[in-house]
Every structure is written in C-alpha cells, then in structure tokens.
C-alpha cells in the first residue's frame, strides 16, 4: 500500500482510493475483451487477443510502479530511490500501449491485421539478417530453420501469406511516426496522443533516451553517496515527491486506456461505467490529470455514453 504525500501547493492523493479499484477494473475489462471482443467488432479473432495482452502489459507495468514504491518494499534495506527513478520511462511504455490499442480500435479489421502482420514481417526480416550474418554454422542453421518453421505455422494459422507479406511496404507506425504523419492537420486521436508526448509527459522519453533533460530529472537519485553530507537528506524528501507525482500519472494512463476501450466496445455489466467514474473522481484532484479530462474525456465519455449512473 502506498499513500501519496501531500506536496506544497498540491492537494493530497491517497493511493488507497484508486490503486486496487483500478487493478480490479483492468482485470474485468481485460476478460471482457478476451471473451466478448469478437462479438463487439474485434475481428479477426486475433485482434481481441492482441488488445488483451497490450492491456495486460500496461496493467503489469502499473503494478511494477506500485510494487517498487510500496511501503513494504521501501522498508527493505536493499531498496534505493534510484530504483524508483530508473523505472520512470516505463510510463512511456504504457503510453505506447494506449496508442496501439486505440489505433487498432479505430479500425479493428484493417489496423488489427496490420499490427500483427507487421510483427510477423519484422520477425522474418530478423531471421533473414541472422542467416546472412551467421549462416554456415550448423548450430545457427538449425536454430534458424526451427524458428522459420514455427513462424511459418503462426503466419498460416493467422491467415497471412508470407510472399504477399514480404511484398508489402506498409508497416505499423510507431507512436512518434503516427503523430508526425498528421502534419499540421492532426486528427482528434493524433492531437490527443501528441499531448501525451509533450509537456511533463515528455520527460519519460527523455529519461529513457538518456538525454540531459532526462538526466536532470533523476541525477539526484543515481549516486547519493557522492553528494555532500549536508545534501543527502534531500534524496529522501525528493524521492517522496517523485513517487507522489508519478504514481497518479501511471494510474491515469491506465485509466485512459480502459476508458478508450469501453468507449469503443461498450461492454455491459460489471458496473464498468460507474467504476470508471469512481476512479476518475479519485484521480482528478491532481491538476495534470484533470487536464486530461478537460481536453478529451469530458466530451469523450459523454459522447460514448459512459455515465456515472
């Protein structure tokens, strides 16, 4: 359990008001996607599977943040603030999962097929590269041959054709490429995702890429014993602030993902709409999270019929 510390100038946020509720709702919606997705337009059937596992990836990333920052973990003598700092880029992984899921949902048949087909094609090209580099070695040749057989079986099972696949030039775009493809005329979806890669959200990519901007955010935690003795108490105070700021953001990204899925697929039962509102009411006290609601979700939830009652 982790309760957010009240920072100067910011309202307090107790993780007990949303942590497990969000975890449980994610499991509910994940099972809905897996079991009911095809009846809600997720065709071919593998589209539901891919969204299911993307959602699970985001959920387990969220769980890592809580595990690493839980009171129980931090009481362990081996825990270091640096561990919490260096996992911050995983927030960008959650944003990428949000992008992949919502992009697929915009056109499940076409985009879902492209998502999986691109993965198969890149796997084929990787084996081609291995064969070009290491071919001639019996061990490598046997391993590559086994991988080709397994990959061929998966490609055929999913209804794709390797020859046609290799001739295609279009690949699933990364988040950055997808946003840039809109130029100066971004769609509503692109504009929303662009906001999640700018401003304070941009620091997650900066830390991941090891830029100076990113290093500024976490340097204090990386080698605390190198600091003058009088400055070392700052590390613990700053760690509290770091955890209090970033945990709600991770929760917000996962909440956004669930809301997008429910908005597209409109699952019945399990009080999904009401539970989404309950979690949002807990998170919205953070100004940067309220900004997400004001810019997208107030209108999105109303249009998609995601009402509290």
Helix content: over 70%
Counting H and I runs of at least 4 residues, what is the number of helices?
15
> Main sheet, how many strands, which sense, barrel?
none
In round numbers, the mean pLDDT is: 91
Low-confidence stretches are 1-9
Structure description:
This protein is an all-alpha fold and 309 residues long. The protein is 70% helix and 0% strand. The protein is built from 15 helices and no strands. The chain has helices at residues 19-36, 45-69, 71-74, 81-86, 90-106, 108-134, 138-157, 162-167, 175-180, 188-195, 202-208, 212-222, 233-265, 272-283, 287-303. Residues 1-9 have low confidence and may be disordered.
Write the layout of secondary structure elements.
Blueprint: H1 19-36, H2 45-69, H3 71-74, H4 81-86, H5 90-106, H6 108-134, H7 138-157, H8 162-167, H9 175-180, H10 188-195, H11 202-208, H12 212-222, H13 233-265, H14 272-283, H15 287-303
Helix pairs in contact: 1-2, 1-13, 1-14, 2-5, 2-13, 5-6, 5-13, 6-7, 11-12, 13-14, 13-15
